[in-house]
Backbone:
């Protein structure tokens, strides 16, 4: 079983949106049994699941005390992939979520404030010895700031996803009825970015699990 944690100390990085879309994409690409563990006290991922007509991905809720039990339950149930959505700013749950992960994905916006904030998250990964990578999220369509941001992100000495995920209305529209962009606009730009970024993450996961 593979475990991927999406984490960022700064709020507003788009962790939940990416977690849910990548979960749906993982099921679509490989037909894998996927579970999402919602560790955010706002429980946005769990709320999305309740609005969703399909009973997949499997949705669980956990905190820093129960995350290991949730992981064990997923493995016992034959889940192939677990994606963990974390809360911002609270360090202890993030540390525990990082510990159980095979790979941690750090999403960040393109602004200087967003980029500077990821250093605290990277320090946590270094402390618990969990491999990580970075994904530029909520980019500005047609703006030069995205490429400039990627150049700065490469200085952190972690793999940076070559696929930039833009700020698109369809990503947020998916929350209204528990769907993902691949189900709403399968030929759209947002769906393409989710598909290609997830394929890249899968390749990173393969590298760290060799």
Residues:
């Amino acid at each position: 079983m593979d475990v991927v944690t999406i984490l960022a100390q700064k709020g507003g990085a788009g962790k939940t949106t990416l977690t849910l879309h990548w979960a749906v994409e993982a099921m679509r690409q490989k037909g894998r049994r996927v579970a999402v563990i919602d560790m955010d006290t706002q429980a946005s991922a769990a709320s999305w699941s309740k609005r969703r007509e399909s009973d997949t991905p499997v949705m669980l809720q956990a905190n820093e005390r129960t995350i290991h039990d949730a992981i064990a339950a997923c493995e016992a149930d034959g889940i192939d992939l677990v994606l963990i959505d974390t809360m911002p700013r609270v360090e202890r749950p993030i540390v525990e979520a990082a510990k159980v992960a095979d790979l941690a994905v750090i999403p960040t916006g393109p602004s200087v404030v967003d980029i500077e904030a990821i250093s605290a998250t990277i320090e946590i990964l270094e402390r618990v010895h969990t491999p990580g990578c970075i994904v530029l999220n909520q980019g500005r369509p047609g703006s030069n700031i995205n490429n400039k941001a990627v150049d700065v992100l490469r200085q952190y000495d972690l793999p940076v996803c070559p696929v930039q995920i833009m700020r698109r209305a369809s990503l947020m529209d998916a929350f209204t009825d528990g769907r993902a962009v691949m189900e709403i606009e399968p030929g759209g730009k947002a769906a393409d970015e989710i598909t290609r970024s997830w394929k890249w993450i899968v390749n990173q996961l393969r590298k760290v699990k060799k």
In short: Strands lie at 2-6, 34-38, 58-61, 81-85, 103-108, 132-136. The radius of gyration is 16 Å.
